[in-house]
Amino acid sequence: MEAGRQVHCPRTWAIALALAVTLSGCQSKGGVSEVLDPAAIAAPAGQNGGAGAGPAQATQSLGTGSTKITMLLPLSAPGTAGENGRKMFDAAKLAMTDIGNGLLTLTVEDTKGDSVQASKLAVSAITTGSKVVIGPTELPAAQHIATLSGSTRPPVLALADNFAGGAGVYAVLLSEADSAAAGAAGLAAKGKKKFVLLVAEGSNASAVEKRVANSLSIYGATLAVTVPYSAGDGGAKAVDEMGSLVDTPDAVIVASGDGSPSPILAALKSKGIPGKAISVVGTSRWLEHPMDPLFEGAYIATLDSRETGPIADRFRTTYNYPADVNVAYAYDMVALTAGIASAVGPDGFSKKVLENPSGFRGSTGLFRFRADGSSERSMPFYQIQKGALKLVAKSTSGF
């Protein structure tokens, strides 16, 4: 392939994931390409049906391509986990129809929602010739895989929520660090210069701090101080400490981790924050809790759970239920692997390709993977007004 030639995923059907792939002798020009054709297709025969019914078998194979991919999903798990797993499976089938059938042989394994089973299946896939593993969705299993060594291990595109990533084990889902960085960048782009980070103590605190500091530096803003806080004291001590360390910041970022942000927001409110001079930035993790009046006025960068880009109409037509962000994540990962297999072949899943700084554009928008396994995303920027998210900007990112 000539240098400078634009690389596109095949578009046998309506939509292919747009790829920007950088390789010696295979250079994508102009940054991230945007090959999105929103034309609808008819539902493939025999594929209509909702996500409620479980699969007929624990292992299923899709496609006839030469590139072997394994996908690990909780197809028969009870409750929400199983429902999301079956949605992801439907998304994988749609992506295979759109782009992957002639490029990939996709083996889908049922983890049953069990982390031990997911770990065993992942190790088996890694050691038996899969070029890429998509999944698992179970956090302990993803964390376990990230501890495994081996220079020849194929890349893993983990679908676990709140997974920080690891070398060669990439976090696909939006993380708190990415949400915080993008939210901070959204205000820095509007002229805010001095920021404070209040971050819940825990294993992810350092990652959040690094990402926020880096995103602010891009806009000429600074992270004046980071104050870790314990959920046990409600954050009041941290807010007092912040006041003694920083004189009138432009914005305070609250990364609350697993806990509710309400206690520390109450402590901030007692100091008149937010106010005319000081804004508050939240994260996607806030939205895991009931909307609280204390959230009012805060800014948050997060994915729109209802926005799945141009695949939405075709997905509904095919499966008789609406797509959500879980569908979008799964579709994008299958389409990404197919696109790379098409552009550079079955052995093209190198760090250089997957960590391409130009990134990839899919149904969840622009994203890219970092060397530490974390992901960076462009996403909508909102302000909470009257208990609801009001769009401030269609896109912001911390990179």
Automatic annotation (TrEMBL):
Pfam families: Peripla_BP_6. Keywords: Signal. Residues 67-387 form the Leucine-binding protein domain. Belongs to the leucine-binding protein family. This is ABC transporter substrate-binding protein. It comes from Mesorhizobium newzealandense.
